[in-house]
Design a protein that fits this description.
The chain has 13 helices and 13 strands. It is α/β, with parallel strands linked by helices and 417 residues long. The strands form 3 sheets. The chain has a 7-stranded mixed beta sheet, sandwiched between helices. The chain is globular and about 70 Å long.
């Protein structure tokens, strides 16, 4: 049966998360924002909190405000861990950026397995992850063993297991693939790495706030991810890292900064790291960014991860159904897993002219993004996207492509896609 606009409106009327949309600032009228998996919307509470921090805490308190700012990385980390990561307090720190955290965690893992010479990862990992692993391997004379990856489903679990042996120090993978949204078997692959004595590092950037993760329950060793996607913490907001309590004091990170130092304000000579996850701190925390993370986590914690996951599935199911009905005859196909159990909360559509289509949509007030060579990526954020918006976006896409409007957008992609 065709899916009518009234069906999407009915889904919105029954949506238990519908009221959260009003807690975000609105862009210009008529804009449909489907890039929440790249940069989340601005929560109204974050805007208000930032004004308070800037005017009262920074403007009025000045340096005195460091008395309550200094514990933000741990405090916000605990909130994030318990609400969204399945991590008990004391194991998550909000600091630095994902690339730096990945480097710190991977280096610590390699140091903890000094007699092993191989890093295992997948061909479809986010580029920064591959760059960091290649750099560490080049500096240490190690081998990076890259597992082939299906463009839709990601690396096959059997292929990952086949790449694991007694020479592997570290397995590093993404929980949700950045291109297709493929959802990896985090507990199963973590267990497979542990069977050969390797440590595991997960990139959670496209997973946190969208899917259940369960770091403690799965026995994950290390994890990192960004906060400006589904957590809505703001552009360039600090990332987070997770270090399993069993590795505290054993895994030692390579960047010895004063925010990892025990009793840092004694300004003592010689590095004496904190005995817990705080040892993975480096320089002075980004207070304004941390405030953005804290407000974003509060909002998602209130919504509840189970409800967020259910709506993420429902939104992408609607997107797939509309694609099959409307867009497949126009040369599109679904480039994300169709099984919702194997899919995160974003959806990728493949088209030979994906960049012109993406550029056309942006001019038509539908914001998605392009991932080469032929992917149009749509990220309907469960907390802030209405079902009818997704219906309207794909209806607009259908009409414009059917009319050939995308042919007016030939040329190279922009620098930011």
């Amino acid at each position: 049966m065709p899916i009518e606009r009234a069906d999407a409106l009915a889904l919105d009327a029954a949506d238990p998360l519908a009221g959260f949309r009003d807690r975000f600032t609105e862009p210009e009228p008529g804009l449909i924002y489907l890039d929440g998996n790249s940069l989340g919307r601005l929560p109204r509470a974050t805007r208000d909190r930032l004004v308070e921090v800037i005017d009262r805490e920074w403007g009025g308190g000045l340096v005195r405000s460091w008395e309550h700012w200094i514990d933000l990385p741990v405090r916000v980390g605990d909130q994030l861990g318990t609400a969204l990561l399945g991590a008990e307090p004391g194991q998550v720190l909000v600091a630095d950026v994902t690339t730096v955290n990945l480097y710190k965690l991977a280096a610590a893992a390699l140091d903890a397995r000094p007699d092993r010479r191989v890093i295992v990862t997948a061909a479809d990992e986010f580029p920064t992850d591959l760059y960091v692993l290649d750099g560490l391997a080049a500096a240490r004379g190690l081998q990076v063993r890259v597992v082939a990856a299906d463009p839709v489903h990601g690396p096959a679990p059997a292929d990952v297991r086949a790449a694991l042996d007694s020479d592997v120090a570290l397995l590093c993978l993404s929980h949700v693939g950045y291109r297709s949204g493929a959802l990896a078997d985090l507990p199963g692959l973590t267990a497979a790495a542990h069977e050969v004595g390797a440590l595991v590092l997960w990139d959670l950037s496209h997973a946190v706030g969208a899917v259940p993760i369960g770091l403690d329950a799965a026995g994950v060793d290390l994890a990192t991810g960004c906060t400006y996607k589904y957590l809505n913490a703001g552009p360039g907001a600090p990332a987070f890292l997770y270090v399993n309590r069993a590795l505290h004091g054993l895994a030692r990170q390579p960047i010895w900064g004063w925010f990892g130092q025990r009793n840092q304000f004694t300004m003592a000579a010689g590095y004496d790291p904190e005995p817990d996850v705080r040892a993975f701190g480096t320089g002075t925390p980004a207070v304004l960014g941390l405030v953005g993370v804290e407000e974003g986590v509060r909002l998602l914690a209130e919504a509840g991860l189970d409800r967020l996951r259910a709506k993420g599935i429902a939104l992408t199911e609607l997107g797939i159904a509309l694609t099959d009905a409307w867009l497949v005859p126009l040369g599109f196909d679904v480039a994300s897993p169709r099984d919702s159990a194997r899919r995160g909360s974003h959806l990728t559509l493949r088209h030979p002219e994906a960049w012109p289509v993406c550029a056309m949509l942006i001019d038509a007030a539908v914001i998605g993004d392009f991932r080469g060579p032929d992917g149009l990526r749509l990220g309907p954020a469960p907390l802030s996207t209405r079902f009818v918006e997704l219906w309207d976006a794909l209806d607009r896409l259908r009409s414009l492509v059917d009319a050939g409007e995308h042919h007016r957008y030939a040329g190279a992609a922009r620098r930011v896609t």
